[in-house]
From TrEMBL:
InterPro entries: DEAD/DEAH_box_helicase_dom, DNA_helicase_ATP-dep_RecQ, DNA_helicase_ATP-dep_RecQ_bac, Helicase_ATP-bd, Helicase_C-like, HRDC-like_sf, HRDC_dom, HRDC_dom_sf
NCBIfam families reported for this sequence: recQ, recQ_fam
Biased segments, Low complexity type: 522-536
Domain HRDC stretches: 539-615
Catalytic activity: Couples ATP hydrolysis with the unwinding of duplex DNA by translocating in the 3'-5' direction
Organism (species): Cohnella hashimotonis
Occurrences of domain Helicase C-terminal (ranges): 227-377
Cofactor entry: Zn(2+); Mg(2+)
Key word Nucleotidyltransferase present: no
Region described as Disordered: 517-538
Name this polypeptide is given: DNA helicase RecQ
Length: 615
């Protein structure tokens, strides 16, 4: 029997590769895809943790085409469902969605068509699982696979917990025999992974984590900058490229969008306080490339499948690293270079603490939120490779420095701050490890402060020992020591500085401490194209052809009423620029050109290339 099973799996994987080529236009699976597909086709539950742009959807779409019946895909946002269904239909795959945008008649018609087996994939919002009619239909159709996208939403310890996701496991009671369950997310700590397995009732799932590093992204943290001035220069250097600017509050979004537009940089805005129709128009314009720049709160983005976002700038620091990496990861989904910049200021920390305190979460959840916020602040101050810091946060070996981020490309002098660090450690110890960074800095600075005098810290031998530095410089020094693991902060609204075990090596074993000291200037450091490695993979000689192909794509997308990236992604257009296919046979060599798209769009692109070559 095992030999038979192995042969069946081998045959299935051969068929899976055939499906991949026929419908999606690729010759081979990416890292992690084959293992997940093999597990699903063998009847095993699966949990896939793969970075944004790694091709998670292929992992359930390919099995869905090979398994009898209809696959149910639980997806959190209407926009994501529509993009996915449009892309599948464009590839010649029968798929549909059921959500609140449909009329009663449209819903009835689609439910009837699902019942009669007209679709291979059906996308639904988690709230739909509470519908008795929908669940009743599930009892009468064959459902071999349930795929859960953005699965971190099921975990109360994740950054975007959604109670409606709790209904997914209850849905299993209505499906006989029990379907294979496959859950996917881009970011999840070990705690969140375990929560996903438990809450979705995955049965001994195959767990595949392909790694969190995004080799096409360059990460940057910019401190001490005039944020608006920096942003204007940054956007103007990237004219014509799609970008997302995230801000922490609705007021900030509105002010920033108005400011950019007044300078001739048209920017749409998106936040939960705007009318639904306005949000939909803005999002649609951005997805269709009619609008290149959007300023938004974190209400925008999850499930946005736009592949050619070239940069994401966080005007304010987000609440935690999981949220940050999800949002930053919307750059470069097509695998082409993308930039992710965070503009940091101390006020950002105050804002995020306000949000935590204002929430109605229980004390345990608030403590967890403060811990996550502290991790985010450490990221902002670390001198380590930013990509490596993120990978380690998610529990993996950081590996070698990426060579692309602002830390790896930091040209400031690396200074020995061992003597200063020892003074900080001694002062924290003398203050009984019971006070925060700011008061510690005041003591070391020798400030004439009421609170310093109240606790008698002005009589400590460490009082004023760093008087040659400004309070801001001392605060940055301490934050750097926290980020590098010498100090730690408690998980509370007013974090207390404490000594970590790593201090012993400095105080007793002669280890040295090095930091890059932040220059005190208002302009801050820029993240120019030359520093980041650039964002365009089109050779200069092909830039004109690339623009012509974009025009063809835009025309076809407008005609069919879909976003341009549904026709072909930028990576496919760039490969056309390199290969210059002028026939159907040659077009088949281009990655991303499947049978259906070749038939519908191939000649239009081949003709544009012929005209360019002949001209």
């Amino acid at each position: 029997m095992p030999d038979t099973i192995d042969k069946d799996i081998g045959r299935s994987m051969g068929e899976a590769r055939s499906v991949l080529k026929r419908f999606f236009g690729y010759d081979a699976f990416r890292r992690g895809q084959e293992e997940l597909i093999e597990a699903i086709l063998s009847g095993r539950d699966a949990l896939g943790v793969m970075p944004t742009g790694a091709g998670k959807s292929i992992c359930y779409q390919v099995p869905a085409l090979l398994m009898p019946g209809v696959t149910i895909v639980v997806s959190p946002l209407i926009s994501l469902m529509k993009d996915q269904v449009d892309a599948l239909n464009a590839a010649g795959i029968e798929a549909t969605l059921i959500n609140s945008t449909l009329s009663a008649k449209e819903t009835n018609d689609r439910l009837r068509d699902i019942y009669y087996g007209h679709y291979k994939l059906v996308y639904v919002a988690p709230e739909r699982l509470e519908s008795e009619r929908f669940r009743g239909m599930l009892r009468h159709i064959k459902v071999p696979l349930v795929a859960v996208d953005e699965a971190h939403c099921v975990s109360q310890w994740g950054h975007d917990f959604r109670p409606s996701y709790m209904g997914i496991s209850r849905m299993l009671q209505d499906i006989e025999p029990r379907p294979v369950m496959a859950a996917f997310t881009a970011t999840a700590t070990d705690v969140v992974k375990d929560d996903i397995v438990d809450r979705l009732r995955l049965a001994s799932p195959a767990r595949i984590t392909t790694g969190y590093a995004r080799e096409n992204l360059s990460l940057s943290v910019v401190k001490n900058a005039d944020k608006r001035d920096y942003l204007v220069r940054y956007i103007r250097e990237r004219a014509g490229q799609s970008g997302i600017i995230y801000a922490a509050t609705r007021r900030e979004v509105e002010g920033l969008a108005g400011f950019l537009t007044s300078l001739g940089l048209p920017a749409g805005m998106y936040h939960a306080g705007l009318p639904e129709e306005e949000r939909a128009r803005t999002q649609e314009a951005f997805i269709r490339d009619d609008l290149q720049l959007i300023v938004a709160t974190n209400a925008f983005g999850m499930g946005i499948d736009k592949s050619n976002v070239r940069y994401v700038v966080h005007f304010n620091m987000p609440k935690n690293l999981e949220a940050y990496y999800q949002e930053a990861g919307r750059a470069g989904r097509d695998g082409e270079p993308g930039e992710c910049v965070m503009l940091f200021s101390a006020q950002d920390v105050v804002t995020q603490k306000f949000f935590i305190e204002r929430s109605e979460a229980e004390d345990e959840r608030k403590r967890n939120d403060y811990r996550l916020l502290n991790d985010m602040v450490e990221y902002a101050h670390t001198s380590d490779c930013l990509q490596r810091a993120i990978v380690r946060y998610f529990g993996e070996d950081g590996g070698e420095p990426c060579g692309r981020c602002s830390s790896c490309n930091d040209e400031r002098e690396l200074r020995d701050v061992t003597d200063q660090a020892k003074l900080v450690f001694a002062c924290v110890s003398a203050m009984k490890q019971r006070f925060g960074i700011t008061l510690t800095a005041k003591v070391l600075r020798g400030a004439s402060d009421a609170k310093v005098r109240q606790f008698g810290f002005d009589s400590l031998p460490w009082y004023g020992r760093l008087g040659s530095l400004s309070e801001k410089e001392i605060v940055q020094l301490i934050h750097g020591l926290v980020a590098d693991g010498y100090l730690k902060l408690t998980d509370s609204q007013y974090p207390v500085v404490q000594l970590a075990a790593k201090v012993r090596g400095v105080m007793s074993e002669g280890e040295q401490v090095f930091q890059r000291i932040e220059p005190q200037q208002s302009g801050g450091r820029t993240s120019s194209r030359s520093r980041s490695g650039g964002v365009s993979a089109v050779p200069p000689a092909d830039a004109e052809l690339f623009e012509r192909l974009r025009e063809v794509r835009k025309s076809l997308a407008t005609r069919e009423g879909v976003p341009p990236f549904i026709i072909f992604g930028d990576a496919t257009l760039r490969e056309m620029c390199a290969l210059r296919p002028t026939s159907e046979h040659e077009m088949r060599r281009v990655k991303g050109v499947g049978d259906a798209k070749l038939e519908k769009y191939g000649e239009a692109f081949a003709e544009a290339i012929r005209v360019y070559v002949e001209g």
